Amino acid sequence: MEWRSEAAQDRSRVLRCFAGADRTSSATLTAQFENDTWLEASSWNGYCATLAGEAASLGHESCLRVLHELGGDAAASLVAADANGATPAHRAAEKGHEGCLRVLHELFCMTIDPQLAMLAGSYASTARDDLIQELRARRSLAWTQSSKPFDRVTAGHSQLSAAAWAAKKGHVGCFRFLFKIGGAAAFLRSLRGRESNIDSKYPCLLTDPALLDLETKRGWLNAQLSVGADAVIDLVVHRDDMLQGLCDALGVHETTGHVDAQAGRVNITFDGEAAEGDGVRREWFGQTIKEIIDPNRGLFKSLDGGRTLQPNPESGDHAADHLAHFALLGRIAGMALYHRESLDVSWSAAFLKAVLGYPITFDDMASVDPEKCDNLRKMREYSAEDLQAADLAFDLDTEMGQQAFVVDTNKRRRVSIELKPGGASIDVTPDNLEEYLQLYANHQLVGTIREQVNAVRQGLGVFLDDVLRAKLRACCTVAEFQLMLCGAPEIDVDDWQASAEYRGGYSAGSDQVKWFWAEVRGMTPAERGQLLFFCTGSARAPATGFADLMGYSGQQKRFAIERDDRGVERPPTAATCFNTLKLPPYPSSRMLAAKLRLTFWAEGFHEGAVAM
Prior knowledge:
There is one protein chain. By secondary structure, the chain is an alpha/beta fold. Helices cover 48% and strands 6% of the residues. The protein is built from 28 helices and ten strands. The longest helix is centred in the N-terminal third of the chain and has 23 residues, at 98-120. The protein is globular and about 95 Å long.
């Protein structure tokens, strides 16, 4: 009883915490549990450890804070593991209490950051390095054991981290927070080679692009593509005509583009040559795609000097069998994904969005036709009288549908396309303007190439059916799919930086600019590709270097970093047609790094793309 007398005053603070907390049934149960724990505990240390675990399980944030404030054994209980190796962080993640995880991380940062700063200035030794690793594991709530590696997650998951518990129980908010603070890294590494388990054991990780890294997503996709892919196609290819007989061999109707095929591997040999294997197949992928996108075929067009391609709406005027070629492209893309080979081409974001079924937004217009997007955007400033005078309805005349958007009240309307049923008789007003702009964008970006998109999707569907495409849309950004399909070629950061321009008050010597390039240099090739895609619409650098970076309609537009003074709470935005990153003046390199990485999962940040 002696320890209870000595700890009575501290216990009273805990009791006040319970009394002032939520007066729910769960809080009452917690108070009863506290009393039982007090009576059954053999020491103050044991009492605090049991109470910390229960507080985390029930989402009792104020109790965690009180234990930390009491210091000593009470504060130590926040990192203590029970007989099963579970800490309060594990318990909070298992039960889905994101608030408790945030409180624990906040409290640990308060106590651990000064220790890390002190250790950084001490003499290097194995003991010091081990202590730093353990403190970092605790700070990120990744700690699982008291020996190296301190964040170990076993392959069979008999030893789980807080992140593993959050993923297993489907608590997306908890996992997202742990991922953000670095507490999910070891768990994600434990998934490598076992990505096929994600669907059955951790399906919540497929609901948000920000929950898995690109490498894990690529492994997951490969596991999905391997299921039921039992067919084997042996192709003998003629080098002087790579496409000869290819439609028949891959199950594509040579006229309609209809696809009748099974998923499986493809083996390639060139006619009259003995070589075979992965290298030969890789060469075939490259040469075949090169023939399909040959400008002389008229199947694709580019508005940025050839860096990205999208279907030509008039492709049928160039070849009667154009849909067969688009279906063939989809078949080849699916096989490339299956074999984990990259296609040496970069597609426009709008085209990939259409093929995979991502929602098209009005802002996507800016990445394809910024002048037209600007004219349409200005309509938001029109009064009701202006719109009435423009005499617009939910239809397009034969000229307006294919040429630049012009408001001309004197032009006789020749209606040929309705944006919605009965659209010719529905006037555009301030109340329905946004719907009009959205439908217009859908028509321009998808409607004009619907046949081509459907043909590509049908070919791709041999491997990526509707269900798998839906999962991809949920867990991957367009940029990530582009990288999985077309690869992440090495980006010369020295060349990128040397060719950059600065605007709005930034210069090469600005802190934010120096922090930006330092962060880029620390990125993986895939991350640089994602950032470049966000800024320019393509994950690939120009073949002749960044000095030849092209913008809209083939005009040279070097990469630029422009100061954005609308607030440091905002993430970076981009004007892709002008290869411009709009970067707020973040006060620290850490904030800039965190905000910059938000661009990896961002879509549609093209605001102001033409107002420059």
